[in-house]
Amino acid sequence: MTQIAPPAPAAARDPATDAAADRRAWLESHEQGYHKGLKSRQVQMIAIGGAIGTGLFLGAGGRLQLAGPALALVYLVCGFFSFLILRALGELVMHRPSSGSFVSYAREFLGEQASFVAGWMFFLNWAMTGIVDITAVALYMKYWPMFGDVPQWLFALAALGVVTVMNLVGVKWFGEMEFWFSLIKVAALVLFLVIGTLILGSGMEVAGHTPGLQLVSDNGGIFPHGILPAVVIIQGVVFAYAGIELIGTAAGETEDARKILPRAINSVIWRIALFYVGSVVLLVLLLPWTAYQAGTSPFVTFFGALGVPGIGTIMNIVVLTAALSSLNSGLYSTGRVLRALAMGGSAPDLLSRMNARKVPYAGILVTVAIYAVGVVLNYVVPSQVFEIVLNIASLGIISTWAFILVCQLALRRAIGRGEAEPVTFRMPGAPVSTWITLAFLLGVLVLMALDYPVGSLTVAALPLIGIILFIGWMLARKKVIALRPDSPMAHHERLVAEQGKS
Predict the structure, then answer these.
(1) What is the pLDDT of residues 332-373, one digit of tens each?
(2) What residues contact 295, with CB distance under 8 A and at least 6 apart?
(3) Is the backbone peptide bond immediately before 382 cis, with ω within 30 degrees of 0?
(4) Contact 299, 192 (CB under 8 A)
(5) For residue 122, which of 330, 365, 445, 400 has the smallest C-alpha distance?
(6) Which H or E run contains 477?
(7) Among 30, 346, 412, 436, which is most buried by a count of CB atoms within 10 Å?
């Protein structure tokens, strides 16, 4: 009689791997409902737009005044670390594209508490930045004499209304608006680079000065005020790149994100080199760096020296576009991040709601309500709005970037344990480059603390923000546990409760 061999025992399953897969499946369920409406050209422009803003168009004049030609080196250093942050984010996106971006990744790799802090610090950043953007739009509109008698708050309200409508009607409209906003910024920079290069090559005088390296050497060299001013302005320059993380949020609504995102991210480094570093180098080779000043766009200074008519109006349109682009991005990203928080229990359920066009309208409207405070501030204290909120936003930026880097480290460890699949798009030099970038962000925080009084007071506000986040977490904790009774945090809570009874 033929004997039937018993079935081979099933391969042992790793509980940790199973738990990681289960957690990932739960997080992927949060992406249901979104429409994959962003196309490659839009994502490419979102990547550019996130890296180019008013920090270059308007802020470079004052920074040239402070640091001279060394500003190009500072932009290069800060741009390099921004690129590393983007590559860390790209690694996470290749692991799992998510509209919740780093909030979702923090939940997966660091736990619910980290996700709570990451999400609300990001919201703090964009809530404050949006108020600044609304104020900027109103101020730029006042540039034209015909609008001199129009109240500043009215322009702020009109800008908010337009951008809100475009965000609520669908993601493709957000993408289209951001595409054209970014295209205007890029076109302006390309025009300057082409004209500036032609003038530099021809040797044509500009305002009585012959372009060339002698304009640098004859005016104190690369570090006219020494190295210290160049180091000090790092804490301001790095925030010129705020918004680069937006591409991670857009990944959740992008067609074939794993194919499109690597190309978009890799292109950022040469765009930074060309637009930021290249522009500053050209500016100091075309005119003495002493010709530029705070409060005036260096591009307006240059084209004004050429005698180009209407250049002030043209550049005002460009910086107006940059402010609207940032406002548009803030509404888009906070709506998605607030929904990600709500899906995990770290925000009210209301914020998870979506409209018929697959847009998280509740989160967007909450952000609009915060931005409306900016409209009121424009009515009450129009001249102080920038200083009140801009420095608070910087804390949210540093926090967001730090969470991206820490999540990337956690992803690498999960891959090493076999709990996640390896990704092909990897951060160069990690984990060493990750730790160096985290150290750089810590250095920026220290430089902020030394910038008395505004920066010092901003950093001093961290304990207060920490207390508010702690209270918020204590209020949300029970709801978070109820949503995931099988989570490690819920298991820990049960163990603590059992020990208390015994």
Answers:
(1) 888 888 988 888 888 888 998 888 888 889 999 999 998 888
(2) 61, 62
(3) no
(4) yes
(5) 400
(6) helix 462-483
(7) 346
Residue with tokens 């998510």: 98
**Residue type (1 letter), 287:** L
Residue 16 belongs to some domain of the structure: no
Question: Cβ distance 485 to 112 under 8 Å?
Answer: no
CA separation for the pair 369, 375 (Å, rounded): 10
DSSP assignment letter at 11:
P
Residue 211: inside a domain: yes
Residue 206's φ and ψ, nearest 5 degrees, are -125, 115
Contact 367, 330 (CB under 8 A): yes
473 and 429 co-located in one domain: no
| Number of alpha helices (DSSP H) and beta strands (DSSP E) in the chain | 23, 0
Q: Which amino acid is at 219?
A: N
- pTM recorded for the entire structure: 0.86
The answer to whether 264 touches 256, Cβ cutoff 8 Å, is no
Instruction: Return the ∠ at Cα 271 (arms to 268 and 275), rounded to 5°.
Output: 145
Is residue 349 domain-shared with residue 204, that is, in the same domain?
Answer: yes
Q: How many domains, the chain?
A: 2
* Whether residue 341 is found in the same domain as residue 435: yes
- In a domain, residue 12? The reply is no
Q: What is the mean pLDDT of residues 293-312?
A: 85
Q: What is the CA radius of gyration of the chain?
A: 25
Q: How far apart are CA 121 and CA 469, in angstroms?
A: 9
**Phi, psi values for residue 204, rounded to 5°:** -65, 135
pLDDT grade, residue 11 (50/70/90)?
A: very low
- Which residues have CB under 8 Å from 45's CB, separation 6+? 178, 179, 182, 183, 186
Residues 6+ apart with CB under 8 A from 21: 419
Calpha distance 193→198 (Å, rounded): 8
Q: How confident is the model at residue 10 (pLDDT cuts 50, 70, 90)?
A: very low
Integer Cα distance of 78 and 272 in angstroms: 10
**Full domain range(s) for residue 484:** 461-502
Candidates 218, 209, 222; CA nearest to 302 is 209
Same domain, 302 and 397: yes
Q: Which pair of structure tokens corresponds to residue 318? A: 């460009």
**pLDDT at 200 exceeding the cut of 50:** yes
Residue 108: how many CB atoms within 10 A of its CB? Answer: 25
